[in-house]
Amino acid sequence: MTPLAQRVLSSKLLGALTAPHGVDRYLEQINPMWAATEVRARVVEVVRETSGEHPVATVRLQPTTTWRGHRAGQYVQVGVEVPGARRTTRCFSISSAESGPGEEFTITVRAHAEGLVSKFLVHDAEPGLTVHLSQAEGAFTLSESPATPTNNRLLYVTGGSGITPAMSHLRTLLRDGYDGRANRKVTFVHYARSPEDQIFAEELQRIAWADNDVSVHLRYGDDVFTEAALRRLVPDFRQTDTWACGPAPMMDLVREAYGDSPRLRTEFFKLSTRPAGTETAEGEVTFAREGSTAANTGESLLEQAEARGLTPEFGCRMGICFSCVSRKTEGTVRNVLTGEESSLPDEEVRICVSAPVGDCVVDL
Ligand code: FES
């Protein structure tokens, strides 16, 4: 889509003419890859990385021109229409080197036993499938340009799927440095359950053997993270810019080893739009137009409305597209992405990311 067409399609006038559904609802019907404000992507390729109990796949995505690009280490929320379920959204790390606006990128996904979206992407995604995206998010990013060599050493300590954002860093450094060099000394330590569970194995081997400033150390099984082992590799690790991402037990050990060193950066996801504490929700939620009142389940207003058989308008279900905006007339809602609460009467809220806190009345 040309920049002019993009500007016209995202204009307020067109937005008003196409209300309440919004211009993206109409564009989507004509071509799933046309969008004025929302971000969608077509699956271009699915590479099955490992098999076994929790198989991993890398999914290459061609986003719409609305994608603003990503920085190495960021993640993206991916919404898929899993057959037999409502659209479901989960966060996945981006595994490819930094992308520019509208450029292809990859996510690398491990299929979890309970993971509706991850299992669908790993087992069922095929080229041609359309998925919904947020813009890239997250602050686990490279702080220096890879094309400006410095003496600063970089250290990556990753475990399991935590390797994914670190791979995005490493690929960016090698792509954007000179002659495939990282242009600074990089130590890359990764812990996997077994060689069979190791993803990106061939590429890591190539990187390890090349003359590129990067040393790669792969550890398996009982060879778990210890401070002493890290000290042998990088004696002044506490003074070394470090990115760590992995399972909670490993991260606890890493944090302990670094103490209060400001050089350690760790990754966490805002994993779900499901608010915390749904099991302790209080009060009642009323959908005034429909005339129904029921106990607050703590889920988002959109989910509670759908559970009662209502069909409010929605688009991304991630708080991005504003398709779901409705009027809350009484009560308090919590934005499940930011945790912010708001009690203003008669306010417009995005019901996909608003959970009622106690009694609440919505004009639906
Ligand atoms: S459905 Fe997109 S903001 Fe709620």
From TrEMBL:
It comes from Nocardioides aurantiacus. Residues 36-143 form the FAD-binding FR-type domain. Keywords: 2Fe-2S, FAD, Flavoprotein, Iron, Iron-sulfur, Metal-binding, Oxidoreductase. This is Ferredoxin-NADP reductase. Residues 283-364 form the 2Fe-2S ferredoxin-type domain. PROSITE patterns: 2FE2S_FER_2, FAD_FR. It comes from the Bacteria. GO terms for molecular function: 2 iron, 2 sulfur cluster binding; metal ion binding; oxidoreductase activity. Its cofactor is FAD. Gene3D superfamilies: 3.10.20.30, Nucleotide-binding domain of ferredoxin-NADP reductase (FNR) module, Translation factors.
